[in-house]
């Protein structure tokens, strides 16, 4: 009981005198007398009065509450004091159970509710349901008309639905909350219900109320829909014990879709019809386009967040069978915010967007790091294998890895997966017969996504050996040349360790990563405008000048990078021979990356300098070695203006691999050849180097200038590697009739994978590519021999990282520049 006040809230008056507007909407009514007699005050869902008018304060004796609605009453103003919540009629507050509130109610709240109308535009007979309420209209229609006079006509008769903010409605076609269903979070009119087949079809209904709601199955999107990732992951988002935060968002594919998904790294996924575009706002020139299959009915986006590095890919499917799996597209983002959202924007007026599933999981480690975990190459090739199983049923099933208990997740093995959001569950395993069929289907999928990789120059074109584009990194913080080189030099996994930490506040580990990357980056900023200054010779000269004189010896425009370069060189390279060798090795890797970029440019394309190439996307191609079958490559010889296969000739291939002491003799045999090639490449760029010998190098009109520049860079590195090799370096030397045609260099990235470092071709065939007697096929022969060698050693994959600009749309493949030969 409270004292009467001489004022009442203006909202109360507005409330009492505006009810006629909602004449067909169910109302909670308060009566001065028992049994719903005397004067009444009625209100609709979502309304509240913090102080009843004087004539009503402490005078309420009975309350009528429509089915599905809820009201909370308080015996003090401002929603304070003793309170009770009613979900059904109260005939008399004189009852001993409620007597303490009889004539004692001073404020009330009617819970927000969704309302369902018999006619369009929220008109006609209606019912309202508050959060956590449900109703079966079919069953209630069989009750007496007196008991539920409103519900009877609404079975299969709902034509419009009003859904307040933070309210979610699930509508079912059948009784007992079964049959086809959809989840709605916006107002729906007749024509919109018709588009999803729910006009005159709703039989049972559930209503929920959540502020941070994630609609995880059969969700209808109108306009904008937010998925609150940070809130859903909660403490896992910033927990260092959790390596991966994975998200699955699966959509129905109608062929008439038009929507976007705003990602937290600044990327944008856009779907128009049957075309998917991946756009990075900070690098819109790096847009990747994919054309979808006409038979696909589902498109699922898989997202992964690891520290400050995010990745996205999509899977096309028909039912639970995959049609196409895209490469991962990665980017850096500012890690640390907890209020991150995925934002889905639908723009189609003809088709409503349907989200089939939303699932969030966390994982502590990368199961792909071990060969035995998945056991088969096709499954290893699926990066986000954990959430893949929610949409695809096949031999890559991971059901045994899922746990539901947080304690089991953190105390168990690192391969466990914890689902933190979503009611969907991974699809069950298939039986043996289905697995055999699935293997065939998955092999066909891999055929669709295989592409060719070229690690050779000289326009050798063979498509017999194919690698799969598995990753595209769009944003490497301007380090497409220097970041991979640093990772290789410091023996750090780039995608799993270096990139996630690159923009985080904590120190990069191991310690060499930070200063190696800084030196490479600043040297490229200062001298990367041309390979005339961005080369091994000038790199060594600048380092030596800094150590002796404290400056670069150049009049630079930007003094800040020079200051940083000088400071890092003097701190980490002075009086430290090991660090000096390490730094030269890192720059070698950077040169090889740029040379590889040059190899893949066509005459029609603009060739960018190293400093610009730093901003280009980086693609990773992987050739699975588990079932690799060696095929001999037939040499092709230029004869009388045409290329002729010579089956009677055979490439002689030597693989030099092992500890440096054991490979020294073999390297010593090849080194003089590489020295001669290097001299020729340098003379092309600097004719004055011919000296007194009088030997001048002539080039034909068909010679590719970028291939010559690439040869110049690779010859420097090849000479350095052969002189001071490492145990994890591999050389593949290809000869024909005893003459060395090419040398391919590779290195072991880890115990499972080997990376292609670079390739150098006899300059005779680069300077005169169409000359009589020119040879082709050596590059293919080298890669086949290398793959065969590695496969026998138990290696998992052969990897090639390629810098390239995105190309136009490519049917059933990817919007990335294809490489001619692997």
Automatic annotation (TrEMBL):
DNA-binding listed as a keyword: no
UniProt keyword annotation of Repeat present: yes
Domain Beta/gamma crystallin 'Greek key' span(s) in chain numbering: 69-112, 167-209
PROSITE patterns: CRYSTALLIN_BETA_GAMMA
Keywords: Repeat
InterPro entries: Beta/gamma_crystallin, Exotox-A_bind, G_crystallin-like
Family: Belongs to the beta/gamma-crystallin family.
Protein name in UniProt: Beta-gamma-crystallin
Organism: Yersinia enterocolitica
Gene: tps_2
